[in-house]
User: Fold these one by one.
Assistant:
Number 1:
Amino acid sequence: MSARAAKKVKRNSPLAKAESRRFYLFLTPWIVGLVVFSGGPVLATFGLSLTDWSLLTTPHWIGLGNYQRMFSDEVLLKAIWNTLYFGGGATLASVSSTFLIAILLNQKVRGIGIFRAIFYLPAIVAGVGTALLWTNILHPDFGLLNFVLGKIGIQGPGWLTAPSWAIPALIIMSVWGAGNTIVIYLAGLQGVSVTLYEAATIDGAGWWGRFWHVTVPMMSPVIFFNMITGFIGSLQAYTLVLIMTDGGPSNSTLLYGLYIYRQAFQYFDMGYASALAVGLFGIIMLITAVQFLFARRWVHYESK
Amino acid sequence: MKRQSRIAAEIAWSAGGVSTIRKARAARTAAYVLLIAGAGIYLLPLLWMFTTSLKSSQGVLSFPPEFIPSTFHWENYPDGWKALPFTRFTINTVLVTGLSVIGTLISCILPAYAFARLKTRGRGAIFAITLATMMIPAEVLLVPQFIMFSKAGMVNTLWPLILPAWFGNAFYIFLLRQFFLTIPQELDDAARIDGASDWRILWSIILPLSKPPLVAVTVFSFVANWNNVIGPIIYLRSLDKYTLAVGLKLFQGQHVTDYNHMMAVSLITIAPIVVVFLLVQRAFIQGATLTGMGGR
């Protein structure tokens, strides 16, 4: 019997068939979920994006009309810019600041567990409660941030009430709640071999040399991972923006997700909202692809 | 092995003489100073939240703001709580979160076990599809899911917030499967020879050994459901169905500058998360660390 025939017999044996049955039995909830809650809705979104539909009428086919409308929609352009500005800023700020925090948290000093918990806590509690807290902290007159800035002699801006300061304000808030990346960095740092540091020390590297020539290159895949997931995560921030500013002042915090929500659930323009969602899908793909393209220049994979 | 090389490194350090020991001590002190400063900055907003919750209604609007109020207004807590039916909101939130967490655990453990342990044709393909769904942004699903639930007559019920959790989540399935794969297959085989079924292996061998990822999935889904804003905003229409998240939003809409009561109620709503987190934080951070494995 050839190896292939043996494999075939094995695959068709009663035992293998029973195992296959059990596989699909265990997978049932997820297969239903895939079809009903992800795959089906994705296809439906593509379909709906080709229609004009206000929920009350029957959807009617308009081909690529919604997509044409997207290209002349100035509010959408603003939303895309805001999303890139906020997403890019929040990702860069949190990926770099949490990297330094993670290096500190990787020190073998007593009580480090407490510090890890403290730095992670904001990420855990981030929700409507802390969104309201930040509207208070960022208040131009009664807020904590401008109070602290005033103490060191800086006249703080209007933050959420000033169109040009609203996105920076949201970035500050999101850096505070970026604990997820800290944990991922910690996992990576624990994987960096001690022998590399020893070798660097023997070669006369100081702390900066060890950081720049060992830690950063060895961690570059993890930094890259955090940049991609961080950017995709930043797209979710619109739910809190909805509570804090509702996109204002004058659409300066209108994020892409919020614009989809507006079109769908305030203007009931389901077709256009679906086309916007497809557009977001495309933008995410594009940005991820660009990140991968640039990654070849700076991300170091040991196995290669 | 790793520990040995670390000890070797320590010896190498100390062989360098007193100056290196002094250097290491200075580095440790510097690390402490930075850690304490950073922790202070991270905790400051939450401290501000607490002191604001104790201020008088004039106190929150005083300029310049006072960090610690002269008198503590503890009555802000019951007063804020009574301004809207927050007890009802809490019951709804507990219901949604509890049922969603249970559903998530069941519907993610079973597929994760199948992907890790049961072999069949097409497993690789289905797993690849599972990973691909992680790329789908939630906004793409918003409209069709709303249409589906409104066709099913479930608008203004808690069902749209609970049901999806009972049908798996790609990220959690991936997380659990990665951990299950690290558990030696020999343990299953031994149990199987003794006549154990899949259920028995899962329940008596795999799950007891998988505490970190189980804690991580539980905390992730607990927090995601407790803090869910967009779902309740879209689906819930009447006060008796509201969850805490939309209740707080409503409160803010009615009492824009009533920061003391707002912070008091907000603190009550985040307290359960803090408690859950502090109880399991060690296992959680260990489990959450696994999420980073996808990056390497």
Note: The longest helix of chain B spans residues 18-53.
Number 2:
Amino acid sequence: MTSIGISLIRLERITCSYGGEPVLVNVDLDVTGDQFTGVVGPSGSGKTTLLRVLLGSNRPIAGSVHRSRGVRVGYVPQVETVNWSFPVTVGECVRMANTRGRRLPWANRNELREAEQVLDRLGIAELAGRHIRDLSGGQQQRMFIARALLGRPQLLLMDEPTSGVDVHTRHEILHLLADLHDDGLAVILTTHDLNGIASHLPHLVCLNTEVIGHGPPAAVLTPPILERTFGAKMEVLEHAGMPIVIDNFTHPHNVVPFRKHA
Amino acid sequence: MDELLRPFEFEFFRNGLIVATLAGALCGMVGVYVVLKGMSYIGHGLSHAIFGGFAASALLGVNFVLGAGVWGVASALMINGVTRRRVIGADAAIGVITTASFALGLALFAIFGRRGRSFDAALFGSILGVSIADVLAIGAVTLLVGVLVFFGYRQLLFTTFDPEVAEASGVRTARVDALLMLVLAAAILATMQVLGVTLIAATLVIPATVARMLTSSFSRMLILATAIGAFTGFVGMNLSYHLDVQSGPTIVLVGATIFAAVFVVSGARARYRLAAIIIPPT
């Protein structure tokens, strides 16, 4: 994790499609080693696709992706997409990422020690023998972060890490990510939560198929940008120097047709 | 006791017993991946698809293993391609490909008559006519699949649990999925004689399902499913002789009885684990 300020991945005018209408159009993004960015946007705005492009699992139909040589990217999926009844323990799940080199099914002493160190760092070492379903929301996120960290990433991508978790867990995850970022890990996460997550991050990208705006929360969380991003009128207040976004939903006619402004 | 040991005097029974035990172990091992990937329907469909190859090879006088094998591999790769592309629903595509192949097999037999290996044996399984060559063939397939699962354990587990992250982590998931389909086709082909195409799916699903109720660890599930499959094949084949019922149905009924017993005895928590199998990941 010694890639502060260096460009890790650069996207130039990328366009992505799953066969129909494009889900991303002409998106430019420069991901640097010191980045801690939230990608905000409504459902279907292309947030997850953007993460997949950065991860390398989705190939754009146009534009170019420049990766710095040997860049390592970790990924934490949306917990809703995980089969929590799958028969694996926390330890097995974390060590699953070790697919290179060793061919034997069981982990050797080094692998076990390395996994234990990562789990210990994230405060869930004592849960290694538990089934993954027996974890709380925060512990689930920590487990997948541990799996990602085992690959020694320079960039951590997280898809909706605070979706469906309580306030305490949300704070817990934010603090953990802030600590990891302080240790030199670049973090990009997607979120719907404008007040609970987005406004606390140093940098935001507002996405609705295309990049509507990017910059610090105070510059991006503005009524015009939010209206273009979410297709709904919103008001922004300020509290203790932080923007607070409020739905301006008073009557159905007040709702701006989705994407009409894009 | 003498009565129980009497069938062992016959070579055809000894061969059938070895084949059934190996077939059970093989299907139990492969079945773990099949059920956890929500591919039970593919297993069922593929066994029917291979019947088309069986019929064609019987009529053309081509070696059964070669004819049905080529047909099975082609069907498996076609199903895998359709499933990964996600253009139309995988279940619909599998339904079309496999039932069409099965129907073709039935039509070929209806038009040209039944030749070569027994038609009923292909559908429902039989130990009659199991030669030493069949024993060696299934032994080789079981050994090969065992080696593949052993050395591909990590890639197979990662791809089964989390294909997207596995791909991003450098696992060639397309290759792993194709390999799994080929292994499945090989397992079905090797066990078709004893179990019959209509019943193979049960031997893929039941041992894995029982093992899932007994453990929450993937490695233990793999070992347990293999052992349960082998046990089911061994006991089912013995019962098949003594009850004078075809081997396929007997083996499946033994498996179903074990499932029912474990389901009743193991309690609510074990039953809850079945969610991984009954509701496959989307």
Note: The domain at 2-278 of chain B is CATH 1.10.3470.10 (ABC transporter involved in vitamin B12 uptake, BtuC).
